[in-house]
Design a protein that fits this description.
By secondary structure, the chain is of the alpha+beta class. Helix content is 18%, strand content 21%. The protein has one domain: Alpha-Beta Plaits. The longest helix has 5 residues.
Protein backbone atom coordinates (compact mmCIF):
# COMPACT_ATOMS: atom_id res chain seq x y z
CA UNK A 1 0.00 0.00 0.00
CA UNK A 2 1.39 3.39 -0.98
CA UNK A 3 2.18 6.16 1.46
CA UNK A 4 0.43 9.53 1.43
CA UNK A 5 1.52 13.00 2.55
CA UNK A 6 -0.99 14.95 4.64
CA UNK A 7 -1.64 18.69 4.85
CA UNK A 8 0.80 18.79 7.77
CA UNK A 9 3.64 18.78 5.18
CA UNK A 10 6.00 21.74 5.60
CA UNK A 11 7.69 21.21 2.20
CA UNK A 12 11.13 20.60 3.69
CA UNK A 13 12.04 17.92 1.12
CA UNK A 14 13.40 15.40 3.64
CA UNK A 15 11.08 12.72 2.26
CA UNK A 16 12.10 13.24 -1.36
CA UNK A 17 15.78 13.05 -0.44
CA UNK A 18 15.33 9.63 1.19
CA UNK A 19 12.99 7.97 -1.33
CA UNK A 20 14.97 5.16 -3.03
CA UNK A 21 12.76 5.15 -6.15
CA UNK A 22 12.25 8.93 -6.53
CA UNK A 23 8.47 8.60 -6.13
CA UNK A 24 8.17 11.93 -4.29
CA UNK A 25 8.05 15.31 -5.99
CA UNK A 26 7.33 18.89 -5.02
CA UNK A 27 3.73 19.91 -5.65
CA UNK A 28 2.11 23.34 -5.64
CA UNK A 29 1.58 23.52 -1.87
CA UNK A 30 3.32 20.39 -0.52
CA UNK A 31 5.26 17.33 -1.59
CA UNK A 32 3.39 14.47 -3.28
CA UNK A 33 3.94 10.72 -3.55
CA UNK A 34 3.29 8.98 -6.86
CA UNK A 35 1.34 5.90 -5.72
CA UNK A 36 2.27 3.98 -8.87
CA UNK A 37 5.99 4.37 -8.16
CA UNK A 38 5.90 4.03 -4.35
CA UNK A 39 7.30 0.70 -3.11
CA UNK A 40 5.93 1.19 0.45
CA UNK A 41 9.36 0.99 2.08
CA UNK A 42 8.55 3.66 4.69
CA UNK A 43 11.81 5.58 4.35
CA UNK A 44 9.92 8.81 3.75
CA UNK A 45 7.72 8.41 6.84
CA UNK A 46 10.73 7.63 9.03
CA UNK A 47 12.49 10.82 7.92
CA UNK A 48 9.56 13.27 8.01
CA UNK A 49 10.20 15.77 10.84
CA UNK A 50 6.48 16.55 11.27
CA UNK A 51 5.05 13.02 10.84
CA UNK A 52 3.03 14.10 7.80
CA UNK A 53 3.41 10.77 5.98
CA UNK A 54 1.39 7.61 6.60
CA UNK A 55 0.17 4.54 4.75
CA UNK A 56 -3.09 4.96 2.86
Amino acid sequence: MAYKISDACISCGACADTCPVSAISEGDTQYQINADECISCGACAENCPVSAISEE
